[in-house]
Design goal:
- By secondary structure, the chain is mostly helical.
- The protein contains ten helices and two strands.
- It has a two-stranded antiparallel ribbon.
- The longest helix is centred in the middle third of the chain and has 45 residues.
- The chain starts with a helix and ends with a helix.
- About 5% of the residues have low confidence.
Length: about 300
Amino acid sequence: EIMDFGIGYSISSTSYPVSGHSFVTDGWRIMRDIANIFFIFILIYVAISTILGQDKKKLIGWVILVALVINFSLFLTKVVVDFGNITSRFFYNNISITNPQTATTIVGASGHKSISYGFASTFNPIKLFANVNRQSTTINSAGGVIATGMSDEQFAGFFTVFALVGAVVNLVAAFVFFSMAWLFIARTIGIWLSMIFAPLAFLSLTLPDKWDLGGAAGGGAGKYMKFGSWWSNLTKLAVMPAIAMLMIFLILTFLKSNFLGNIPNETTTGQFIGVLLPLIMVSYLLLQTKKTAES
């Protein structure tokens, strides 16, 4: 469920507001005002440099241009983000997660398409308990007693083993799904910060080399205050979901192709293979998807 929410929320354009009052827009306005204060100091610097005989005429024109662009920096950032979101939703909308009985799209509690169901249905651990039945007796036409199923001791042993395996399956699946969810949630947070600090990133284009906002901020905050690193981070976050959704679309298409064929589930070995092999493949493919999208 958390993966479904993370994906659906991250690629929704409404998650990145550019008008009204919100955490992003209010934060951007504060950064814009700070940038405007810096422009005053830059103009003072240019005036003093001119008095001292240094030619700073080109810098004046550049400062005026950037000062105008800063007022549209939030909108320009949103355009880049929307490009990635629109591309991502093309693959997202083409992913079919339907209920085979009603032919309707399966939607989670968060209101987003249940992509996690599409993966989980391929290694459903409930399959392990398909043939775990207590012993029962029937009387045939000749009056004989026929015992079927497992004895109490066999039932307890098989149930314990299958329950443990089922728990491991669920833990592995939860880890993989949470990793994918965090990939998209972290992307959303990163874009919010890129939108908020956009004015300072554009401001850095006009600052003298000695005025290094990125170096002054240091650490992770510095990458949002220098235009080069800010732009690189923004474009990476914008296109990341498109790559991830393309791979998820291909993986789900592959899983629906019945690549394992008809594995007999009458035996314990067949039941284990029918659950563990799809789990291993799904986990590996999703983790590779995360790795590729992050790179």
